[in-house]
Model the fold of this input.
Amino acid sequence: MTSVKQFHVLVVPTPAQGHVAPLVKLAHQIVDHGIKVTFVNIESAHKKFVTALPDTYVERQGMRFASIPDGLGSKDHRKDVLEVHEIIQNMPHRFKEFIEKINGLEEDAKVDYVIADLTANWALEVAAEMGIKRAGVCVTGPASLALTLQIPKLIGDGIIDINGTSLKDESICLSDNIPIWYTDEFVWSFPSNPTMQKICFEHASRKSQTIKFCDWILCNTCYETDPSACDLVPNILTIGPLLASNEHSHSSGSMRLEDSTCISWLDNQPAGSVVYVAFGSAVVLSHEQFEELEHGLASLGKPFLWVVPSNIANESVSKFGKVVEWAPQEKVLAHPSTACFVSHCGWNSTLEGLSNGVPFLCWPNFVDQFHNQKYICDVWKIGLRLDTDKSSGVFSRCEIKGKIEKLLSDDGIKENALKLKEIVRGSLANHGSSSRNLEYFIEQMMAD
Ligand code: UDP
Done:
């Protein structure tokens, strides 16, 4: 008797927290459809990811976590953006070798399809070269992607130069329903760090090329929250928000150990009382800003849960609230004690807050975060923004305290947040737009 070959998909993230997490969630959903998935991480990210798997994780049939060497040997400076950039240069031939090795093993293991982060353009280009069908995943909002697709036109119109630097002080409007960008708010803008800007701009520019290699663009959002931007992206299928499964045995994609003591702490707080503060994986506050936040939170007279990376942890903060190095964020946002989310507005955090109906106090820093803030405050009206103190250049303790109090007493914002939660959850329910799109994608992927 001959066995039927199981369809085999490689899922490839960019090696950063905000990319690995949504792609792992997507990978689990694909396995749910009886498809075999190999999740291919760069070695250094793979190690962190595997180390952070929860104790409850059980290996799933059909899901394999694999890694490709990053070519940096024993050097361990991988946090440095330049090192990550160097790793990426090594990837095309390593990825090709990886696929050739799998394909050479046995007929049953052969790779049928590649799903890769749009920023992991090397994976999509190698798949194209090897004649393997492929889809790109957009882990930012559709508006950020739509802007990226405009790069050639922005250069042609003399608005930016070939390094992404603004040449004119103009605002960019892609549609009446999409908030405008000022030229210092582009996803690649780092006015004070030209090297960083150059790298981010190269990645952004490449996306508009990479998209041409893809049969589909899977976007981590739902159509209903931003139809105008979705309509600007060719071959888009909105399949989000990609959320952690309720299955305890699945991974949420964390690359750091989650401190679950905060959940039992939340269990002991009154309903709707806790201010949750977290700025994702890359934001580092200045010492002065950290102190203002610490004092602002302490003076609130309310319980708070604050994610403070170990390198800047300050013992004194813990007596005013609960401080953890890394939280199971989706569980925190879904907890009935959580009242609001002081957030850097990273796209995953934005979607996780939306999906749980939690109002935001926005604290954007870079890349797409300023534009996400505009969606939160101006389009969806589910949050407030902070104003910088003109003399110190930081958010003052009074501003932080005052805005949290204002947010918590705003019934309109709460109502909007709950309405949006229903819309987003509806898209994920049976026959909702995102779940229909995922089914459609899987059918198309496996056709012929
Ligand atoms: N996250 C988490 N625990 C934390 C803080 C963040 O699990 O204590 C997760 C969060 O749920 C989200 C991701 O880390 O899925 C951060 O992604 P986001 O796009 O918001 O920000 P980035 O880290 O890319 O700046």
